[in-house]
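For the sake of transparency, this paper describes our internal protein records without simplification. The record that follows is passed on verbatim for readers who wish to inspect the format:
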Amino acid sequence: MCGGCRVKIGNEVKFACVDGPDFDGHKVDFNDLMMRLKRYTEEEKTALNRWSESCRIMKQTPTVNAAEPTLGLPDPFEEALGG
């Protein structure tokens, strides 16, 4: 298993792909989960920039700011993080 779906449930570590995806939400350690999801933010931005430079669809789609390509998708964590 890759461990990408690792979630702390109370004092146990579970894997959403095997043990879930349904867990008691009161026992999920959301602080740990959010920190794990932010761990590779810089690498993800670099990969997105590299992809957007070579993606044929992005070259056909106008962008809001040429220096920062956008896919037009909302950030799923923006609301959760109070953004």
